From TrEMBL, chain A:
Organism name: Streptomyces longispororuber
Chain ranges passing through the membrane: none
Recorded GO MF terms: ATP binding; glutaminase activity; phosphoribosylformylglycinamidine synthase activity
Pfam families membership: GATase_5 (PF13507)
CDD domains in the cross-refs: GATase1_FGAR_AT
UniProt function note: Part of the phosphoribosylformylglycinamidine synthase complex involved in the purines biosynthetic pathway. Catalyzes the ATP-dependent conversion of formylglycinamide ribonucleotide (FGAR) and glutamine to yield formylglycinamidine ribonucleotide (FGAM) and glutamate. The FGAM synthase complex is composed of three subunits. PurQ produces an ammonia molecule by converting glutamine to glutamate. PurL transfers the ammonia molecule to FGAR to form FGAM in an ATP-dependent manner.
Keyword annotations: ATP-binding, Cytoplasm, Glutamine amidotransferase, Hydrolase, Ligase, Nucleotide-binding, Purine biosynthesis
Taxonomic lineage: Bacteria, Bacillati, Actinomycetota, Actinomycetes, Kitasatosporales
Name of the protein this chain belongs to: Phosphoribosylformylglycinamidine synthase subunit PurQ
PROSITE patterns (alphabetical): GATASE_TYPE_1 (PS51273)
Matching InterPro entries: Class_I_gatase-like, PRibForGlyAmidine_synth_PurQ
Main localization, broad class: cytoplasm
EC number(s) stated in the UniProt entry for this protein: 6.3.5.3, 3.5.1.2
Lineage: superkingdom: Bacteria
Active site: C105, H214, E216
Automatic annotation (TrEMBL), chain B:
Record-annotated active site: H55, H104
Protein's UniProt name: Phosphoribosylformylglycinamidine synthase subunit PurL
Family the UniProt entry places it in: Belongs to the FGAMS family.
Positions bound to ATP: Y58, K100, N510, G547
Domain Phosphoribosylformylglycinamidine synthase linker positions: 16-59
Length: 245, 757
């Protein structure tokens, strides 16, 4: 079993004297993994901050996570309605200004709907919801959320969705690959028919990352898959933000 | 059309009424007239018809269910017992857990997706209504023959419905069963269970008290779906020549339910309700009459204030509608403002539709005119009670005399090997991952164990690692051979599964699925099963906290096997000590706990190899079950075992194969010289591998703990036989055969996708 890292002790008041690193977790109507994501943030040593879809106020957070779930019941298209919520206006603004944003599952779908990331998600090619422990290869450590991983590292984290098939036109896919913006690929099996086995991507600046699998479900050895392979997302961002201070 | 007001009903005593079409019997209609001293109005008739249905009133089963309240074991964990939306037990550290299993059998046959989806929705609202946050769901499912064309229609729809609804609610699906048997053709059993967690002080009850308190209906608008679901659908035998029942099936919206959950939990946190009830079967008729009946006063409702999806609905239809995702709360006047604010925050429609009165009547008005004026108890709690005749069926003796022990057994090691493969690949014994992978088991981040483990387990407290476990089990084949023993075997298996995971069994809920109560043979099965279950619970010290009865599961004259499904809830002080089923490390020693006898009646082997059902089910020894559970729990707590797997259908070999495949390791087994301590069975490989004797488990013991573990078993008098070791990449039975893990994995995992994928 992997031991959990101790909460970053330097952050109580912190050497910079600016208090905890605050990571916002947005709750939309129908969001499911908000409390799980808050737990993951806490276990990594940062302070989770609840953000509400109706509020434009991001409460001075240092980064934002758009968690998984079925915002607005996935009606119309996953993420298509929540993309227009007040909080997203601020998230889109701040993401443009360089604030780190992570979209997990429904959050990833939302990021594509908001055009913060290219491409779109379609129904899984087998048409079923699929919940499994999914092996991934980390393709880049040059994002705000993956610095703690090594390029080529293989990790396993839960995947659970019905609309997880990543698609984009050939030109976009070529561009993503040429620019090193494919962050994760599915290994061993492609669980949903995603083009080029893509499980997660980033924007040009590397501050916005979206992926379908759920790192927040793999942060404790006791629950879920029994692995802590997802914790690196949250420690990556924490270190980056601490270093930036 | 003139409105059928109370006044109009009094003036037109002889007007013809559609009581028969609404599912009422002639004497029931006469009794309603007697209670009211006049003919009922159309709205009153609608209410009585749904509330006096078998599904809501338990009129045929009540006299037998009584035992669960009479044969109560000493157990101080019970906080709320039978009669509320769900029972509540104390799990320590100030936490209480509520859990329940309900059936949604008939709707799931007619409209598999919506039937199953709304089954999940209904049970989750029951749990929510107790004041708890729902934390996990389980789904015991039974279908017709796996290769029957209609099973290909029903199963994928049911599974997609459970996933589509449950996944969208954010509730991990941690357990359940999938069973195939031709007896469920045309009558699939779709049972849904839910567990909820709260603090003791958060328990809420379904009662309306305090004159002047407001009645608030909140959640979805009321539509025309599900009208008469409980009466004409759930309480009648299917008749293939009748009109389509599809409009009686409700349509679910899980997004609305998710909002309802979060909204309700926030309302609870601010302590804004005096009483609460969900709207499920029988809709507003049920919620208003039950709340008023359980409370101290009366209730007045302005029915025309109910928000509608379809403005043309009649008052009768509004009262009977089973539209989903609705709740009804009783709120003190000064808290109504805040209540409505929270509903607005969550985009949930909330409407004050009436108030609690100091009278004794439930009065309902439609645009100012009175259409209902009834004593609520007569609707909700004083429905008809039937003492249905029951009689041991004439064929029972012949069935029991048809001994499975006389079936031809494999003559060679090769034949034995083939039959092992046949059994582990059979639809009932094969891996159900294709199904359970369509359910989210990770959400909420507290899932410690989920299927295919013996029991599902979730963490309740992140600081202390307190957790709860639940298993559901039933075996219709055993119950058909002997309903009394069959019910106890279902209880024993579920109890054993919980203990195998390391949790201490605390209390049970049940879902009793049977054929038509109007058939004396079915009624005998029901009477025997309930008696067996009540006696069993007394012996095991696990009280019945509540449950559900589903009757009329039959087509024409043919009833399903009697299928009592038992859910056992357990508690574990420290979830880090849970015991998984996987054999993970070479060198772990395998011990068989309990006695193995030549017991093949109702077994998986008899079904798979000989398509046979006859003889007697395995013998029940509840004292032994208790001892086995104590050993399993102690061994888990003290770190003496690495894995444990209960033995049930398929016998030892099925359990070993599952544990090996789960851990990716092989095992070498040796057939012991004696299988039972009383010398009743000598060590033959066939009995060793396929017997389904109860009260057994296989455990993997680390070498360093062997002495301590065997000493404990010896001191407590539990037979523990060393049967092998975890080793290699095959399951080998010495002197008999060896089966490679790859071959076993293929046999075990390919069956279900090949049938339904």
């Amino acid at each position: 079993m992997t031991a959990l890292p101790s909460p970053a002790t330097t952050l109580d008041g912190g050497p910079s004297g600016r208090g905890n690193i605050r990571i916002g977790v947005v709750t939309f109507p129908g969001t499911l993994d908000d409390r799980d994501t808050q737990r993951a943030v806490r276990l990594a040593g940062a302070e989770p901050v609840e953000l509400w879809h109706r509020d434009k106020d991001l409460k001075q957070v240092d980064a934002v996570v758009l968690p998984g779930g079925f915002s607005y019941g996935d009606y119309l298209r996953a993420g298509a309605i929540s993309r227009f919520s007040p909080v997203m206006e601020s998230v889109i603004d701040q993401a443009g200004a360089g604030m780190p944003v992570l979209g997990i599952c429904n959050g990833f779908q939302l990021l594509t709907e908001a055009h913060l990331l290219p491409g779109a998600m379609l129904r899984n090619n087998h048409l079923h919801f699929i919940c499994r422990d999914q092996k991934l290869r980390v393709e880049t450590d040059r994002t705000a959320w993956t610095a703690d991983y090594a390029v080529g590292q293989e990790i396993s984290i839960p995947l659970k969705n019905i609309d997880g098939r990543y698609v984009a036109d050939e030109r976009t896919l070529d561009m993503l690959e040429a620019e090193g913006r494919v962050v994760f690929r599915y290994l061993d099996m492609n669980p949903n028919g995603s083009l080029r086995d893509i499980a997660g991507i980033t924007n040009e600046a590397g501050n916005v990352v979206g992926l379908m699998p759920h790192p927040e479900h793999a942060v404790e050895p006791l629950v879920g898959t029994g692995r802590t392979d997802g914790l690196g997302f949250f420690t990556s961002i924490l270190k980056k933000l601490v270093d930036a201070r | 059309m003139t409105l059928d007001t109370v006044k109009h009903a009094t003036e037109t005593p002889e007007a013809a009424q559609p009581w028969k079409e609404l599912g009422l019997k002639e004497d029931e209609y006469a009794r309603i007239r007697e209670i009211l001293g006049r003919r009922p109005t159309g709205a009153e008739l609608a209410m009585y018809s749904v509330m006096w249905s078998e599904h809501c009133s338990y009129k045929s089963s009540k006299v037998h269910l009584k035992q669960f309240g009479e044969k109560v074991p000493e157990n101080d964990a019970m906080l709320v017992g039978i009669g509320e939306n769900a029972g509540v037990v104390d799990v320590g550290q100030g936490y209480a857990v509520t859990f329940k299993v309900e059936s949604h059998n008939h709707p799931s046959y007619i409209e598999p997706y919506q039937g199953a989806a709304t089954g999940v929705g209904g049970i989750v609202r029951d749990i929510l209504a107790m004041g708890a946050r729902p934390v996990a769901v389980v789904d015991p499912l039974r279908f017709g023959a796996a290769d029957h064309p209609d099973t290909k229609r029903v199963l994928p729809g049911v599974v997609a419905g459970i996933g589509g609804y449950g996944n969208c609610l954010g509730l991990p699906n941690i357990g359940g069963e999938v069973v195939f048997d031709p007896c469920y053709q045309g009558n699939p059993l779709v049972n849904a269970g839910c567990i909820g967690v709260m603090k003791h002080e958060d328990i809420h009850l379904a009662k309306a008290s305090g004159p002047g308190n407001k009645v608030i209906l909140y959640g979805a608008r009321t539509g025309g779906d599900g009208i008469g679901g409980v009466s004409v659908l759930a309480s009648e035998t299917f008749d293939s020549t009748g009109p389509s029942r599809r409009p009686a099936v409700q349509v679910g919206d899980p997004f609305q339910e998710k909002l309802l959950i979060e909204c309700t939990l926030e309302i609870f946190r601010e302590n804004l309700v005096a009483g609460i009830q969900d709207l499920g079967g029988a809709g507003l008729s049920c919620a208003t009459s039950e709340l008023a009946s359980a409370g101290s006063g009366g209730m007045r409702v302005e029915l025309d204030t109910v928000p509608l999806r379809d403005s043309s609905l009649s008052p009768e239809e509004i009262l009977m509608s089973e539209s989903q995702e609705r709740m009804c709360a009783i709120v003190e006047p000064d808290k109504v403002g805040r209540f409505l604010e929270i509903c607005e925050k969550w985009d949930v429609i909330a409407t004050v539709i009436g108030e609690v009165t100091d009278g004794e009547r439930l009065e309902i008005f439609w645009h100012g005119e009175q259409i209902v004026d009834v004593p609520p108890r007569t609707v909700a709690h004083e429905g008809p009670v039937y003492h249905r005749p029951y009689e041991r069926p004439s064929w029972q003796d012949a069935l029991q005399a048809d001994d499975a022990g006389a079936l031809p057994r494999p003559a060679t090691a090769e034949a034995l090997r083939d039959q092992v493969l046949q059994v582990v690949a059979s639809p009932n014994q094969a891996s159900k991952a294709w199904i359970t992978d369509q359910y989210d088991r990770f959400v909420q981040g507290n899932t410690v164990l989920a299927q295919p483990e013996d029991a599902g387990m979730v963490r309740v407290d992140e600081e202390t690692n307190l957790g709860v476990a639940m298993a559901t089990d039933g075996n219709g084949r055993y119950a058909k051979l002997d309903p009394y023993a069959g019910a106890q075997l279902a209880l024993a298996e579920s109890y054993r599964n919980v203990a195998a995971s390391g949790a201490k069994p605390l209390a049970i809920s049940n879902c009793l699925n049977f054929g038509s109560p109007e058939d004396p043979a079915v009624m005998w099965q029901f009477a025997e099963a309930t008696r067996g279950l009540a006696d069993g619970c007394l012996a095991l010290g696990t009280p019945v906290t509540g449950g559900n009865v589903s009757l009329y599961n039959q087509t024409g004259e043919t009833a399903i096997h009697p299928t009592p499904v038992v859910a056992v809830l357990g508690v574990i002080d420290d979830v880090t000590r849970r015991t998984p089923i996987a054999f993970t490390e070479e060198g772990q020693l395998l011990y068989l706990l309990g006695d193995t006898r030549e017991e093949f009646g109702g077994s998986a082997w008899a079904q798979v190899v000989h398509d046979h059902l006859g003889g007697l089910p395995p013998k029940v020894d509840l004292e032994r079950e208790r001892l086995l559970a104590e050993i399993l729990i102690s061994a888990s707590r003290d770190g003496m075992i690495d894995a444990a797997h209960d033995l049930s259908d398929g016998g030892l070999i099925q359990a070993v194969v599952e544990s090996c495949l789960r851990g990716g390791t092989g095992a070498r087994l040796v057939v012991p010289e004696a299988l039972a301590t009383d010398g009743s069975a000598t060590g033959d490989a066939f009995t060793f591998l396929f017997s389904e004797s109860a009260g057994r488990a296989v455990v993997a013991v680390p070498r360093s703990e062997e002495l301590r573990f065997t000493d404990m078993c010896a001191a407590r008098g539990l037979p523990a036989t060393r049967i092998g070791v975890v080793d290699g990449d095959a399951v080998e039975v010495q002197g008999q055969f060896s089966l490679g893990l790859d071959e076993l994995r293929a046999a075990h995992t390919e069956t279900i996708p090949a049938l339904f994928g």
